[in-house]
Amino acid sequence: MGLLIFYLLTSWLPLLIRETGASMSQASIITALFPLGGGIGVLILGALMDKINPNKVVAVGWLLTGVFVCLVGFSTSSLALMGVMVFIAGSIMNGAQSSMPALAAGFYPTQGRATGVAWMLGIGRFGGILGAFSGAFLMQAQLSFETIFTLLAIPAFLSAIALLIKYRVSQSVPATTDEARSLQKA
C-alpha cells in the first residue's frame, strides 16, 4: 500500500499541483519536499520503534500518513501550507514504509525470514506499479485535487488497520518451540 502512495505521488504530484494553479517551478519544489521529509521520517520512526512497540508505531505512522495525505488535498489555498503538508506526509509515509521490512523480519521464523521479507518487498512492487497507473486513471477521471488526495489516504488507513489486526492476532498466538526454549533458558 505504501509503494502505491509513494509512486503515485512521486510520479504525479507535480502535475497535480500544477492543476491548482502553481507554476512548474513551485510544483517541483513542493514535490521535492515529499522524499526530503522521508529521510527525517525514517530516523524518527526507527528511533520510536526501538522504544515503543514497533507494530503500534508503524500503525500510527500509517494512520498519520492517511491524515496528512488527505490534508494535502485541502491545502490548495496556500502553496506554503501545501509544502508543509507534503513534507509531513512524506516524512511519516516514508518512515512507515521503510519500517515494514523490520516488522516483517519479526513476523517470520528465523529459517524463513529472508524469504518472507523478500516476498513482502516483491509483492509491494505491484503497489508501486499500480500507483503509477492509478495516477493516470485519476487524472483522466478529472477528479478534484481534494478528491484524489482523499482517495489516496485510503491505502494508508487500510495499512494501519491491517497492522493493528496483525498485532492483535500475534498477541493471541502461542510462542513457537524455539521461542519457548529460549524463554526457558532465560
Automatic annotation (TrEMBL):
It is found in: Membrane. GO terms for molecular function: carboxylic acid transmembrane transporter activity. Its main location: membrane. The keyword Phosphoprotein does not apply. It comes from the Bacteria. GO terms for cellular component: plasma membrane. Pfam families: MFS_1. It is a multi-pass membrane protein. Residues 1-186 form the Major facilitator superfamily (MFS) profile domain. The chain crosses the membrane at residues 28-48, 57-74, 117-139, 145-165. Keywords: Cell membrane, Membrane, Transmembrane, Transmembrane helix. This is 4-hydroxybenzoate transporter.
